[in-house]
Design brief:
Layout (H helix, E strand, L loop, with lengths): L1 H9 L5 E3 L11 H15 L5 E4 L5 H13 L4 E3 L10 H14 L4
Parallel strand pairs: 1-2, 2-3
Helix pairs in contact: 1-2, 3-4
Length: about 110
């Protein structure tokens, strides 16, 4: 992964996103997701912003991922609404309202 990050940096990218919705994030343990995000942030070393995915099947778990991402230095957060059970528009709104009331990234 570090060689790939170096290649991307040398290619002139302007930012990275990890643990997003097109990756294997649902298959990673919390520890693996944290390791991936930390590895990228360490390798990037502030050269470009890194957005860390915080999608989860519940608002509670999303908030845990948001705190983790903020604590390790993510420049931003990326998340889907809670998945698995269908939600109506109000439930989705309440999810993001709760996240916005707790996270430092505004």
């Amino acid at each position: 992964m570090e060689k790939h990050i170096d290649f991307l940096l040398e290619s002139g990218i302007h930012g990275l996103c990890t643990n997003g919705s097109t990756s294997e994030f649902p298959l990673l343990t919390d520890e693996e997701a944290l390791k991936v995000a930390k590895t990228i942030l360490r390798r990037v070393n502030g050269k470009i912003p890194v957005i860390v995915g915080a999608s989860a099947p519940s608002t509670r778990k999303t908030l845990e991922f948001c705190k983790m991402a903020e604590d390790i230095g993510a420049a931003g957060l990326l998340m889907l609404p809670p998945y698995y059970f269908p939600l109506d528009n109000l439930e989705i709104y309440k999810h993001y309202e709760m996240v916005a009331s707790v996270v430092r990234h505004k």
